[in-house]
Amino acid sequence: MPANVRDAAGIARHPIARLQSEKSSSLPRLRLRVTATAESILRGGHPWLFADSIREQNRTGLAGELAVVYDRKDKFLAIGLFDPESPLRVRVLHWGRPAALDAAWWRKNLSQALRRREGLFDPRTNGYRCINGESDNWPGLVLDRYAAAFVLKIYTAAWLPRLAEIAALIHAALKPGRLVLRLSRNIQEAARKNFRLEDGSELLREGERTLWLPSRAAAPVVFLETGIRFEADVVRGQKTGFFLDQRENRRRVEAFARGGQVLNAFSFSGGFSLYAARGGARSVTDLDISAHALESAKRNFALNQSAAGVNACRHETIQTDAFAWLEQSPAQKFDLVVLDPPSLAKREAEREGAIQAYGKLVANGIKTLRPGGVLAASSCSAHVSAAEFFDAVRQAAQKSGRSFTELETAQHAADHPATFPEAQYLKCIYLRG
Q1: What are the start-end ranges of the H helices in 143-231?
Q2: Phi/psi zone of residue 113: left (φ > 0), alpha (ψ -120 to 50 degrees), beta?
Q3: pLDDT digits (tens, 9 = 90+) for 82-107
Q4: Active site residue: 130, 313, 380, 428, which one?
Q5: Is 223 helix (H, G, I), strand (E, B) or coil?
Q6: CA distances from 148 to 121, 153, 174, 242 (A)
Q7: CATH class of the 5-16+102-213 domain in this structure
Q8: How far is CA 14 from CA 164, 171, 198, 211, in A?
Q9: The dihedral sign for the CA sequence 414, 420, 422, 424
Q10: Between residues 3 and 145, which one has the greater pLDDT?
Q11: Would the N or C end of the chain have less CB density within 10 A of its end CB?
């Protein structure tokens, strides 16, 4: 491995190792055969192959190598990234006829994802998703833009041996001012042990080499979303630093806010609140259990004081458990109530309980809503379907004894496509009554 180099501050920058390619280059192609059910699922274009669906494997596979799946007639079925440590054993990259997944294929794959975003945003928005995992044919990987900074988040160790080439592709295509690596918790140990990579590292290009700079405390990145300025902690923040997936719902909330008093439960850094303020809300109340999140919301409001609506809106923050606060049925009532809780079902076994919890949450939210007001209820629980969530909200509204008109329902924004059932996590419903 080449010697480490140091930046101007004397901090070591490390070359990214290519362990997998060195180990697997002399081995025969990893070949798999799967159950009849899995064959059918893969033929339908599903991007996941689980370990218990593999009935034959010619050798032990290495993380990140390409595994070829054959059908019962020994014909090519699919090819994808192999992860020996995960129950989700193969993340499929290509189906149908055989193809060489060479450098040109990878460049084309990136180009296709980027082209899907062309024309979606004007200069007033420079924060959005560039790659949305499996739905953009980059399984277990997302790439988000925040102004000149880009954040690459990976959810499977299968990408670690390929990180150098992927970072090189991104640098060549997008010329990022910064490229920050974020790692899901389940792969952070493997990244440290095998590649000396840390969550929050910065990926650099120096000549033909990809280097990484250890994570350092840095000021949040400020970016634009439909003309509103937000900060994103791209090194330590949740997800990649901000919840970009709710942009279109924030725009909808803005349209309902004029002249009203707004409650934003589970407010995080105040995204819905700022849109409501710009839309002409008289006041916005943020509820969140995290003091850090509420301080971020205050900073975001400060960033936008030049906007007349934001400057005129009274912004209040309350550090509290939003579930408990709503349960207490406070005397204050609101014209617009936004309910955007964290996922209530992180696994299938929690689905029924989550559906009941959503119903209860909406029932309590309705109690704080003035007659004629608008309720915006959202769910990010992939294990609860859109139909189940919408039904839970509708039933809670019906049981309240009030008459509600359903204004609209919404799911994923165009830069967050969801092309298979497990990817369809986001849904929001708007009721007036």
Answers
A1: 163-174, 188-195
A2: alpha
A3: 999 999 999 999 999 999 999 999 99
A4: 380
A5: strand
A6: 15, 16, 9, 15
A7: alpha beta
A8: 11, 17, 11, 5
A9: positive
A10: 145
A11: N
Give the chain's mean pLDDT: 93
As annotated, the residues of the chain forming the CATH 3.40.50.150 domain(s) are 243-432
380 is catalytic: yes
Answer left, alpha or beta for residue 268, where phi above 0 means left and psi between -120 and 50 means alpha.
left
What is the Cα–Cα distance from 373 to 39, expressed in whole angstroms? 50
Residue 30 Cα to chain centre, angstroms: 31
Q: Which of 88, 132, 90 is nearest to 113 (CA)?
A: 132
Question: Which amino acid is residue 54, in one-letter code?
Answer: I
pLDDT at 206: 87
Does residue 22 surpass a pLDDT of 50? no
Q: Which of 395, 375, 393, 374 is nearest to 384 (CA)?
A: 393
135 contacts 382 by C-beta, under 8 angstroms: no
Residue 240 CB coordination number (10 Å): 23
∠359-404-358 over CA atoms, to 5°?
A: 10
Contact status, residue 135 vs residue 419, Cβ threshold 8 Å? yes
DSSP H or E run through 394: helix 386-399
Q: Give 260's DSSP letter.
A: -
Measured over the CA atoms of residue 199, residue 153, residue 206 and residue 106, the dihedral's sign is: positive
The whole-angstrom separation of Cα 42 and Cα 78 is 7
CATH 2.30.130.10 is right for the domain spanning 21-95: yes
Tokens of 241: 């630093």
- Residue with tokens 């700022």, as numbered in its chain: 274
Assign 288 to helix, strand or coil: strand
Angle at 145 between CA 153 and CA 249, to 5 degrees: 95
Task: Give tens-digit pLDDT for 367-395.
Answer: 999 999 999 999 999 999 999 999 999 99
Range name among 210-214, 280-284, 296-300, 325-329 with the lowest pLDDT average: 210-214
Position 12 scores a pLDDT of 57
Residues making up the chain, counted from first to last: 433
Gyration radius of the chain over CA positions: 23
pLDDT single digits (tens) 50-87? 999 999 999 999 999 999 999 999 999 999 999 999 99
Q: Give the pLDDT band (50/70/90) at residue 6.
A: low
* CATH number for the segment(s) 243-432: 3.40.50.150
Where along the chain do the CATH 2.30.130.10 domains lie? 21-95
Residues of the chain with CATH 3.30.750.80: 5-16+102-213
